[in-house]
Structure formats: C-alpha cells, structure tokens
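Below is how a single chain appears once it has passed through the pipeline. First comes the sequence as given, then the structure the pipeline wrote out for it. We keep one example in the README because the format questions we get most often are answered faster by looking than by reading.
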Amino acid sequence: MTSENKSQNTRKFTGKKALMWIVGFFLVVFTVNGIMASFALGTWGGLETENSYRKGIHYNDQITAAAKQAESGWEIYLRHFPEMITAESGKTGRLDIEVIWPENDLPPARVSALITRAVTNIYDQEVILTKSRDNLYTAPLSLPLAGQWNVEILVKRPNGDLYKLKQKISVAAASKET
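Resulting structure:
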C-alpha cells in the first residue's frame, strides 16, 4: 500500500462528526438518567420522618419516658401467629399482646398496634386489640407481603400515660406446593 491509499482509507474527524459524538453521548446519559429516575419515583413510597427536627429536640424526653416505663412495673410482650388457612375465614393471622401491670394499678384503657414496613408506607395499618382474657389482648392480623414488619405497641393507661414496645416480626413467603 502506498501512502496515497492510506490517506484515502482513513476518515477525517471533522467538527460535524465530533458534534454527533457529543450529542449521542449526552442522549445516552439523559436516557439512562430518565429511566433510573422513573424507577426510583415508582418504587419509593415517600416514607420519611415527619417533624424530624422536633423529634430530635425531644429525644431526651423519650429516654426519660422509657426509664419511667421500666420503673413502673408495666411489662408488654408481643406474640405473632402468622397467617393460617382456616375453613371459616380463609387466610388469617393473629397478634397477641400480653400486658402485665402492678396489682395496685388499673388495667389498660386501650391497646393498639401500628404495623409498618421499613421501606414503604403503603401497607401501614393500625390494629386495635381487644381483651380476650386476663392480661391478653388480641386481634386478627393479615399482612399482605412476606418479609420484615415493624410493630409498635401502644398501651394507654387509665391516667393517660402511654407505654410503648417496638419489635420486629417476620412473615415467611408462602411455599409453593406442586
């Protein structure tokens, strides 16, 4: 090959070609960013801490309330029975809360549970528990997804004090039978 043939085979890099490369590069970047942004917006339920500044200011109050609860003699225990298939009601689960209080105190005025997921607020639910026997409060519970759930038990005393228990429960995925 002569030097004349080599120059004919090589293409010149012109300003038009450089512009096309730059425009193409940014088109790819913007397209990928658009796709990722749409996935991000479509999967995030918008869960965030409301009034985070105020909660931070009152953090010492929460520590004091927890110490007061520990000294009061009130104890709260949570038991979760996952969903079972029953002939009468189909799929149901159950949440049991055992509340133990000192002998000289009155029983709770109200027992409720706030059930949430860590990554979304779409399935949040509040469950009011009813007294089923001496210290046991119970409610049916149906959780739509497998995985970890956060449970915050709120026990309101007759004098207005509020005792809390935060615990995590886990729901197993349904097994597929062949």
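The helical segments are 3-9, 15-43, 52-57, 59-72.

See the next section for the split statistics.
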